[in-house]
Amino acid sequence: MFTVIGVMFGGIAIGFLLRRQRLSWIGRVITVLIWVLLFLLGVEVGGNRRIVEGLATLGGEALMIALACVLGSCVLAWGLWHWLYKRKGRSV
């Protein structure tokens, strides 16, 4: 935990010191590092037998959560839209 916080503050300090430098290449470095992290995450998940065996269950749960979120967002957006127009006296 302290290592992660120390690395973060180290990055902040280096960024503060280099704030006047033009670091146009840093975006590409960050993109490559994100791809590497995603690949290593996939390797770790693929190597874990419990996760691989439970993918069907996890997928079903993820689908249900996603559908519930979309449905809830649509219902609340519809309700807010009607409430705003009713409040202003406009017809829908």
TrEMBL record:
Lineage top rank: taxon: Bacteria
Transmembrane residue ranges: 25-43, 63-84
InterPro entries reported in the protein's UniProt record: LysO (IPR005642)
A UniProt-annotated Pfam family: Lys_export
Keywords for the protein's UniProt record, in alphabetical order: Membrane, Transmembrane, Transmembrane helix
Name recorded for this polypeptide: LysO family transporter
Origin species: Bacteroides mediterraneensis
